[in-house]
Amino acid sequence: MVGAAKVDLDCRRDNALSRFYVDDRSVVASSAVKLDRRYRAWAEWSSKVGLEENHLKAYAIAKGARRRQELVDVLADRAKLEVELLGVSTMSHKRVHSEKEVQRAEACLRTIRLLSFVRLPFARYLNAVRAYAISKVAYGWIARWPTLQLSKRIWAAVNVGFRRMRSAAPWLRAALFGGSMHPDVLFASRLVGCFARARLKRVLAWIPVSGSPSHALDTWLRRRGWTRDRHWVWRHLLTGESINLSHRRVVPGRLQHAVRNAWRAWCLLQHAATNRRDVDHVDCFVGGRLRVGYFRRIDWESTRKWACSCPQARTICCGAAWSPASLGGRVAHRPSLACIWDGCDELGTFDHIAWTCPHRPDVHTLPARPTLAMSARWGWVVKGTGTDYGALHRWLETVQSRLWAVFHQ
Q1: What confidence tens digit (pLDDT) does each residue in 317-340 have?
Q2: Phi and psi at residue 403, in whole multiples of 5°?
Q3: CA distances from 30 to 12, 33, 44 (A)
Q4: Which of 7, 182, 224, 252 is placed for a possible disulfide with 196 were both Cys, Cβ 3.0 to 4.6 Å?
């Protein structure tokens, strides 16, 4: 710090800011000339005290075409478009992934492919992907987040790697299993956790400039359906969740849960905006003073536990079940659109097969159709409904097994 005081004293008219982390330094200045002057002052001081610095690691970037040109004129051998500091890449031009970020993404995809050869059970496969693959790409995002295209590509690879549920709805899978491992939400939940832990120690500085962590978090939240009331305070009208980083008594885990929960709602809205056959079953946002419906009563843990129990459950849970009506006669050995139960000639929709067909086996002992569409179609557990989900899940597993027997006989 003696060196910092000496250099700052020599360059006190430059109005430049120096930051330090162990043996790394960063300098921010208002012009390329002042930046060059501060760089040379540091080099001179290091030479006087006998420090050998690696000048090949000295880089300079500027924002805007005019400033970049000024930087090239003054520091031609140091000017770059991207810089990595402590594993975090920063860009000075149009939003693209840096070379290091691309390498991390490819390493993640390669690890997912390797894990797919092990043939682990579903729950252990997800845990392994989270620990060994997603961790490679989740590192280094502070003032930027991975593009949605990259996040969707990685999430699709997770599905393909298990070699199951090829027809599963990607946004349903994301809502159900992606809260702790989808790259898109990991950025925001981790950044909120960092801000919350920092708020326990000091007042946070709001910096609305592009390239700052606060601006990145605010932009991500607003694009995922949040509304900012004031600095460090957001609310999500659809789910009733809120984030308040202006208050000193914050609970990092609670705020991270709010981010994940609202992101799950956003995933369901993305599914509802597709042209899949089951989009009308997303009815959890209808009703209530805050229009949250029964979304906040969805038991994600119990639903995931059932989905991990057997292939039939995963198929139903993730919207991968096909009925004769939805297949439209595309199965060569069974072109009929009729119901799968013996003696029934009605149109074989999933709702008819599971809940209304009078030819179902032991029809008088079967559970009644749930009033909530997401439970009736996907078997998702919702608290406070009085539904016997054990009996419901056993019946849906039987329906799916029957569908497989008919289509793959």
Answers
A1: 999 998 998 888 676 667 788 899
A2: -60, -45
A3: 13, 9, 21
A4: 252
